[in-house]
Amino acid sequence: MSPLWPLSYPWWQFLLRGSVVYIAVLLLLRLAGKRQVGQMGTGEFVAILLISNAVQNAMNGGDNSITGGLILAAVIVALSALVAYLTYKSRRCEAIFEGTPALLVHQGKVLNHSLEKELLSLHELKTMLRKQGVHAMDEIEDAILESNGQLSIIRKADVAAAKIANGARESSK
User: Fold this and answer.
1) Residue 18 burial by Cβ neighbours in a 10 Å radius (0-12, 13-18, 19+)
2) Are 38 and 149 a contacting pair, CB within 8 Å?
């Protein structure tokens, strides 16, 4: 049985290992695309579990001490807070770490090149639309795949109502 508290390596190695693995996994997930994170299916969930198992030894280097685990946990939490702060303060960091929204439907027409770029099929888009109560493309002005994987919809009826409301405000001035 190994001691619980003594480290097998210097503390800075845990800091370095944890940082490198965190950034690498973050970038790999970012490369996987918005759809993968926002709509995780069984395959993606299994991949996340396997990734966490695969990188464990890379982070701890075989050290099973409580101290090493606590240092790694602190590094991961600190890096997560740092990424959140950077994405809050900088649009460029936000684009790098979280991506940018993608317009999938414009004026009721599906933008196939956007679907291809986001690795979404027309069937998957229609499924996402039905989940939001949209059953026909002609109901939609725009559909935007947000950087978190959620689909935002602007309905033609909402655009028309806004124009009417704006027109009423203008005429009352």
Assistant:
1) buried
2) yes
- The answer to whether residues 33 and 57 belong to one domain is yes
* Domain end point (choices 61, 76, 98): 98
Query: Which helix (H) or strand (E) element contains residue 142?
Result: strand 140-145
For the segment 83-97, what is each residue's pLDDT rounded down to a tens digit? 999 999 999 999 888
Per-residue b or e along 146-170, where b marks 16 or more CB atoms closer than 10 Å to that residue's CB: ebebebebebeeeeeeeeeeeeeee
Question: Which pTM value belongs to this model?
Answer: 0.70
Q: Shortest CA distance to 62 belongs to which of 13, 12, 20, 24?
A: 13
Phi, psi of 103 (to 5 degrees): -75, 120
Cα-Cα-Cα-Cα dihedral sign, residues 73, 75, 81, 84: negative
Say whether pLDDT at 140 is over 80.
Answer: yes
